[in-house]
Specification:
- By secondary structure, this protein is of the alpha/beta class.
- It has 3 domains: 16-246, 2-enoyl-CoA Hydratase, Chain A, domain 1; 273-429 and 471-503, 2-enoyl-CoA Hydratase, Chain A, domain 1 (Alpha-Beta Complex); 434-470, no CATH class.
- Helices cover 39% and strands 17% of the residues.
- Strands 10, 11, 12, 13, 14, 15, 16 and 17 form an 8-stranded mixed beta sheet that branches.
- Helix 4 packs parallel to helix 5, helix 13 packs parallel to helix 15 and helix 17 packs across helix 19.
- The N and C termini lie far apart (64 Å).
- The structure holds hexanoyl-coenzyme A (HXC).
Length: 519
Amino acid sequence: MTPGWAEALAGLAAREALARAGGGEARLEEQRSAGKLTARERIEALLDRGSFVETGMLAEHQCRDFGMEEKKFPGDGVVTGHGCIDGRCVCVYAEDATVLGGSTGRVHGTKIHTLLRRARENRVPVVGLHDSGGARIQEGMDNVYGMTGVLAEYSLNSGVVPQIVAIMGTCAGGAAYSAALADFIVQVEHTSQLFVTGPALAAEVLGEEVTNEALGGCDVHARRSGVTHLAARDDRDAIALIRRLLGYLPQSNRERPAAGATDDPAERTVPELLDIVPIDPEANYDMREVVRALADGAAYLEIQEQFARNVTVGFARLGGRVVGVVANNPAVGDGYMDGAAAVKAARFVRTCDAFNIPLVTLVDAPGFLPGVAQEQDGLLRHGAKLLHAWTEATVPKVSCILRKMYGGVIPAMGVHEIGFDQVFAWPSAEMQMVRAEPAVKILCRRELAAAADPQALLQQRVREYRELYLTPYHSASLAVVDAIVPPQDTRARLIAALRLLDGKIVADRPWRKHSNLPL
Ligand code: HXC
């Protein structure tokens, strides 16, 4: 080594060591004792061993106000770079809550939005590990250059590369908004919260006393708001979920998800479906059992599992191909669809379409939930999102009607005219605009009023209506369905349909700047 090198290398090592020290050992230890990993430990657990390449390690904020000159930390509270997950390149950042609360100043924000732009330019997914109080208060309006850039880059990346954010601490303001712009949010139970403004502002503006957890804990977002897509037990579970989720996604919108080898035969019959699903349309069952019975190796990654549970959406593989599943769940609210279910399904359909993932629906719903509450809640606006999403989606779309498909559910879950390529029905399937008894009461009102025995006449007319309209053979005769499939053959038929649709080409559509999704 020529003279001077040792000193130069020691200088670099000292600076890097400072960056690795984050907000100091005491704060790092405090974070560990709260049951969390540190920012660097999170990245290490996420990426394939030794694959992380860090950028921006020595960047520092330039703020001189409010005592900030004394508070310099190399890296500025966020670790950024790229690495591999199962051999695939990803861009990754982890906010470090031990440095100024993980807050996003100008430099911290610029590190993130530069990384986001790089991900888009190089067509690789983004994983953001959030643990930040949002825009850094001491930097005032300089925050515009950091945080706003992050929000813009998330939006520009949308539909180009998959973006996954994990909420791993208390995240407020821009740190919460940027997560909301991603495709998927994974949230850690009990040790993370997510909100636009924290309890202090809720108390000041509304006089509302609330804890971080009650305002934005995992329970709030996974069950009620639907903001969180996957709930994790702890940091390591969140990281495992991110790795699993990425396995269903391609690198970018120019690719398809990798097909996996499977030893689950495509022709496998599924006789257990005859036990899982009662033929009596009034008896309920858990649709997720059906999905698992059909899927390769019974593997189903359910998304938004605890929100709008009357619809289940998620990823599975059929014959090795990744598919997005959208299915009614009669186990919850008799499977009636509602506004929340429509929005959940619409969002998932658009995510799958953006990333070239074929869609399969399993239909069993008596209709959209009637009544004042749903109408006032904007059921029409929400249902329209789903109709719009199906028509706009160009990926292969296959539906299978198990038992009930009534009214608005018909376009919302699967017929050719809304864009489905193949439509199957089980022999148990009932399809009509209106169910038998209400239909007869509307159509035969006068006749029933004049009848000597209205109840007997009602029963007779209902029987006639059922025989005429409510068998799948009525729909098959009109080519509304392509085939009546015995339940045990469903897996083989779905896989055969997806094989045919592998090379699907969609005819050009009229030019438009973008559609006007009914938001
Ligand atoms: C600077 C921050 C910070 C912030 C937290 N800290 N948020 N520092 N800017 N935004 C610091 C605290 O001073 C503290 O430092 C440490 O982080 C931990 O914070 P605590 O309050 O002790 O933690 P906790 O009780 O868990 O509460 C977390 C919190 C709360 C709910 C996030 O800190 C909070 O309300 N922060 C402000 C949130 C906010 O209003 N952000 C701006 C949003 S506006 P010490 O050194 O004492 O440990 C925004 C809009 C973006 O983001 C648009 C851009 C153009």
